[in-house]
Amino acid sequence: MEEIHQNPHPPPWPPPPAAVPPYFRCPISMEVMQDPVTISTGVTFERANIERWFFTYNKRTCPATMQTILNFDITPNYTLKRLILSWNMKESCSSSSSSSSLVEYDDVGALLKNVESSPFKVSSLRKLRLLAAVDDVAANGVKSVFSRANGFEVLVGIVNQVVASESFDFANFEACQEALGVLSHFSFSKRDEKLFEMLSKPESIKSMAVVLQRGSIEGRFYAMEMLQKMCQNGYDWNLLTRYQAIDLFKSIFELASDEMNKQASTLMLRDFSTIPKCRCETLFSSTLKLLIEIMESSKKSRLRSIEAGAVCIMIDLLPDLNRSKCERTLHILKLLSECAEGRSAIAEHAMGIAIVTKKMSASNAATKIGVKILWLMCNYHPGERVLEEMMGCGAVKKLLGILNNNGDGRSSTKEKARKIMNIHGSFWRRFPCFPYEFRD
């Protein structure tokens, strides 16, 4: 007691560590996130925590907002991940010499020289990928260093080696995947003429197609991200020759139909860590988005994708998809059905009309897209086989149900259903299974 009275002002506590920005913390564990992902409600969580919430505890709500979840897609939040990496690097630099990060960036040139000269490129490329992940740490950034050291030419050259060599070389293939991993961290546009022009060449696109077809999960993610960036920056897919385009679409469709996206619960990476099923589903969702972007760009892209077997693969995938993936797949089928070749492929598929009809019940959006597909089929491909199949699989009954739904008013979907019935109603009324209440 005497000591307390003698020293009324005790020494201050050691200064607290720098405050962590609250949006860096996972809402579940309140720890700084290392692999942030965003769910359908727009909230970001640590991947391991939200996967455990959904797939171990079988929760169907958002842990932060308690909203009911219908779409369990998990999207990597690369922007936040880079911010967290940058913040961590700055914190570590503040406790050491301020030049430490600059030394790392000086090492970029040495690593690039090692990549050019050494046959053992993978370890150097991995170090470059880690540096690229924290691009905003140093004042100049990695991208400017890459430009000065001709780094992009080096990386694109490594990517293109996959198709340049006649025989498959595992070392070149692994280096290609790592080079794509480095490039995936850089943003670019048509204004970055040099990088965009190099990636736009047919051999670069073909190399990414090969990685989509044969690569590891990580490699496929990197290739998919690069192709999406090409799409977002207005790449003209018509520049590809017929055979190059078909090869690319075949690679994408093989990825879409891969069993890992539908059945595997876990997969092994080359570093022996496991990737849960939802990672594969995220890759599958990215595949569907890329297909939509490419097919919306031109009619020629749709024709090439039809040649590559798009219609059959999309129809075969539909039965096992959840709502959001079902809507995207139906949207792809709708784009394909705008071509005569696409409508023929749907009509020839044994389950084409039936599965489109069945999945119309998935959501209002699916109903709208499904009616548009049926409208295109009935208007431009109205063979007796198609009309009989529509009656047999319940499509006519669903169209009549849409017409009888007073809540829809005069929606475009209802108008299409009305036009279909006006054109072909007399044919369907001859069938004994035509609903009696609508016969007149």
Automatic annotation (TrEMBL):
SMART domains per UniProt: Ubox (SM00504)
* Keywords, ordered alphabetically: Transferase, Ubl conjugation pathway
Database matches in InterPro entries:
ARM-like, ARM-type_fold, ARM_PUB, PUB22/23/24-like, RING-Ubox_PUB, Ubox_domain, Znf_RING/FYVE/PHD
Biological process per Gene Ontology, one example term: protein ubiquitination
Catalytic activity annotation:
S-ubiquitinyl-[E2 ubiquitin-conjugating enzyme]-L-cysteine + [acceptor protein]-L-lysine = [E2 ubiquitin-conjugating enzyme]-L-cysteine + N(6)-ubiquitinyl-[acceptor protein]-L-lysine
Q: Which Pfam families is this protein grouped with?
A: ARM_PUB, U-box
Q: What's the EC number here?
A: 2.3.2.27
- Family annotation (CDD domains): RING-Ubox_PUB
Q: Which domain of life is it from?
A: Eukaryota
Q: Which residue ranges does the record assign to the U-box domain? A: 19-94
Its pathway? Protein modification; protein ubiquitination
Q: What does this protein do?
A: Functions as an E3 ubiquitin ligase.
Name it. U-box domain-containing protein
User: Which organism is this protein's natural source?
Assistant: Momordica charantia (Bitter gourd)
